[in-house]
Design goal:
outer membrane lipoprotein receptor (LolB), chain A; mainly beta; 14-stranded antiparallel β-sheet
């Protein structure tokens, strides 16, 4: 990867600017306490000003050969420029299931979550981490259950992170509030690393495969 300056990355993510990452399919290994417990994939496709993003998460935690936790999610987002026009997801969180479907109508995202009607402002940004626009927000929509979450973002600057065994310059952001995680994006706006605490306090990380 070509080295980039902090200034260039700051331009990419400054203010309310939104640089949609180029089309790409990324696969992450999900690691807990040194062991892989699953994987996540993100596929970004582009057609003119339209962007479609398909995402999957599959986590399977075993303890002494017995399944202790399972998490599976598939989700899709459609964007027109910097405007989300449709979001859908199906989630199985260890047996608790959620289904969300929203589409833009006039000035609102309207649809259902878990069989109940939901209407949100058209400017809402889903909480999915593929999108560097997340780093400019103070409120985001949880793409599991449609709830609005308050967050704060700290810009921790440029760091070298290991990407497929190679040191790579990436912009580190710390998200705190009702969603807490650390995220690293490369110069083209693609997520290359993610860490957060699991419900049991263990550190979980996404590493690009």
């Amino acid at each position: 990867m070509r080295p980039v300056t902090s200034f260039a990355l700051l331009l990419l993510f400054s203010g309310t600017a939104f640089a949609v990452p180029a089309p790409q399919t990324s696969k992450f290994a999900i690691i807990r306490e040194g062991n892989q417990i699953g994987f996540s994939t993100t596929s970004i496709q582009r057609n003119g000003d339209e962007t479609a993003v398909d995402m999957t998460i599959n986590v399977h935690v075993k303890i002494l050969g017995i399944t202790a936790y399972r998490y599976v999610q598939t989700s899709t987002e459609k964007w027109s420029g910097a405007q989300v026009v449709a979001v859908s997801s199906e989630t199985n969180d260890n047996g608790t299931k959620h289904k969300l479907s929203l589409a833009l109508h006039d000035d609102k995202l309207i649809g259902e979550v878990d069989g109940k009607q939901l209407a949100l402002g058209a400017d809402v940004v889903p909480s999915s981490v593929w999108n560097p626009k997340l780093m400019t927000q103070t409120v985001v929509m949880d793409n599991v259950n449609g709830k609005l979450k308050t967050i704060s973002i700290a810009d921790l600057g440029i760091e070298n992170v290991d990407v497929r065994g190679q040191p790579t310059k990436a912009h580190h952001y710390s998200m705190r509030g009702q969603l807490e995680q650390d995220l690293w994006y490369d110069a083209s706006g693609h997520l290359v690393q993610l860490t957060f605490k699991g419900r049991d306090g263990s550190i979980i990380s996404y590493h690009l495969m």
